[in-house]
Amino acid sequence: MDKRLGVDNVGLTDKPLFVRSNQTFYSSYDIPNYIGEATYGGGEWKMNRAQTPNSLRPTEIKSNEFKDHNEDANGGCCGNSFDIFSDETSFHGLKHIKGGNNWSRRMSWIIILVLALIGLTYQINRSVSRYFDYPTNTNLNYVTKSAITFPKVTVCNSNMFKFDQVTPLLGGSVLFYYHGLQYLRSLTPDIGITSNGNGYGKLEDETYPGKKDLKEFIWYNSHRIKDMLEVCVFNGVICGPENFTLTYTNYGACYAFTPTTNISLNNAGQRYGLSMILNVEHLQYITAPRENVGFRIAIDGYNDDPDIEASGVDVGTGIRASIGLRKQTITSLPPPHGNCIVDGDKQLKYQVNKKYTQSRCLLECETDYFMEVCGCRTFYTPGNETQPFCSPSNLTGCYIPKYDQFADHRQVYCKCEEACSVESFLKTNSFSGFPSRGVPQTFVVTKQWRYYALAFGFNVRQGIEFQMNEIIEQMIEETEQFVIDAFIEVGLPNYTNNLPTEYIEQLAEQFMIFNYDAIFYLTNKISDNIFYDLIFEYPATEVGSEFHNLTIDGATDELSYQIDVITDTMTEAVQLTYPSHNFTREDAKNYNEVLMKNILESVYPRIRNASLEVGVTIYTTNDLASLTQEYMVDNMARVDIYFETLKVEEIKDQKAYEFFSIICDLGGALGLFFGASLVAFVEAIDFWFIKRCCGPKKK
């Protein structure tokens, strides 16, 4: 059968190129419709058409011829397919590498191609890694609110232990500065100008004087809000001590403001916030653990437990502190974009009914850490009844020495992530003097006699100091007779005649301490009220008055611990000396009630008369307004807490990358290289499989 061959890429023609034997060569574009029958005559053309109905096109002829040649040369269908692919593909780098005129040009293209591959690989790896780091964008905006919930305000007196309260429990006023103060410094060590550089001491005690545990000891000896709060106004409404709740913090026993009215504020400014005038009770200060005078104020959200030491604001006496607030809400993305805790995902261990916050979690972590290390917890951390508070020996022997280690590695010990939604308050503090010198004169017009009385009593107390020493000496000399008279009054024999010497010495020391503290207590109470006796010429503090009866009862309560110590000593001594008399502790208690009442009734008029004498001198030689001004500067502070604006600053974390952003971030390298590679891949498939495998077979 005749074979038709053609010449490719020659162009159109209306004649055969040449005829040889039985072969006719046409143009590569041998299209009968274009050539027409007239070229060769009807018969010849028809013959040619009839002879080659299935003839290959000229291009196919050439390709098949090359194929036959390649198969023969390489022994297969794909021997030089890379050469053909590099010629045909639109991925021009390969074509230049294969068809370069010299090796330098080829090497240049190889280097370019390798660098492009490296750049592409780096860009892909960088984009994918960045995506799986889950970066975020932060959106900050201000939202105007018609009403904002007022924050939780916690008020703490800088003085942790009140002198009148704690001294009767620690050996009395006589021995306090020799033993009691060091005891308190051991419980609450601090650095200051009165520190001796030895740090804290180690106590061997297992119980606290007069109280069952550390928490009760802290509360009993702290300042009371009813004594500190002079004036309270919230959003134009009068408030009082009943609006404050006792709360324990790392600063001691504090008080959190809890208004009974609506806590949402519709207006900004000082008139619509919380205003307080506080009495620091400076005369009750001791240097354990702190040496400063004033208050520490913390402002937090209602779901936070305040860290007073870390975030509180100090307010000194003689100061008006204005604290302007701006509310800030931070909303963070949950995992995998962040490590915050979604509300409800994590429950507190000991405060099951409270919302999870990082501050509460850290306190619970502190409980667990010290329960494991020391077997106890401190007074301000949460827990249950099976987790005891630290005894003095545990506190000074384990808890305090190991606290620094816990604080330094808190993030390691505690897995307490921040909540995904957190409220905080940005504070702007400003200060001015308080009060002005015109305030004391205004007390007369407004009939605020109490402040005059406090200032007057403060000066009386200072002036009566020397007379107090004389009264104490008299009472000590008379104590023996009081003891004998009390035995007679309760119908008991005179046991003291035969008591062992060691018990007589113990009782003498305890009676001396009781006398000193009783005189000190009565002096404080009477001096604060002697003003009314002098100014209004009314015997408010005379013996037999209501004030007198309340003061005697109050002294008995305040000195009850010392009375119990005397009772125990007397019970032991009498039972040892007179074992057959069936003397019980109840007998000793009844005896001491009579004895102490007799002593107090004897001391009271002496203190009152001495106070009147000093008070007359002050009243006739000093200006009451000037005395009051001095007292208020030493003891008073005013705090105004309010919103500066009702706009809420909202900070939100937003996802910055989604999956499709990887493709966008790959840039030109990914687009060009990957696109060209894809085209080349498609062309290779087309060439190898469609053209080669699916085309006409060789005949």
Strand content: 15-25%
- By secondary-structure content and strand pairing, the structural class works out as alpha+beta
Largest sheet: 8 strands, mixed
**Rounded mean pLDDT score:** 81
Total helical segments = 25
Question: How many beta strands in the DSSP annotation?
Answer: 18
Q: How much helicity do the residues have? A: 40-55%
- Cα end-to-end separation: 11 Å
Rg from Cα:
49 Å
Residue ranges: pLDDT <50 for 5 or more in a row?
A: 1-13, 27-53, 55-76
- Specify the overall morphology: elongated
Write the layout of secondary structure elements.
Elements (H helix, E strand, L loop, with lengths): L4 E3 L10 E3 L2 E5 L4 H4 L6 H10 L6 H17 L6 H8 L3 H8 L3 H30 L3 E9 L3 E2 L2 E6 L5 H4 L5 H16 L26 H7 L4 H4 E6 L2 E2 L5 E6 L2 E6 L6 E2 L8 E6 L15 E6 L7 H4 L1 E3 L3 E13 L26 H16 L18 H17 L1 H4 L7 E13 L4 H9 L2 H15 L1 H25 L11 H27 L2 H6 L10 H13 L1 H18 L7 H37 L2 H12 E8 L3 E9 L4 H6 L1 H27 L6
Parallel strand pairs: 1-3, 15-17, 15-18
Antiparallel strand pairs: 2-3, 4-18, 5-11, 6-10, 6-13, 7-8, 7-12, 9-10, 12-17, 13-14, 15-16
Helix pairs in contact: 4-5, 5-6, 6-25, 8-18, 16-18, 16-22, 16-23, 17-18, 17-22, 18-21, 18-22, 20-22, 21-22
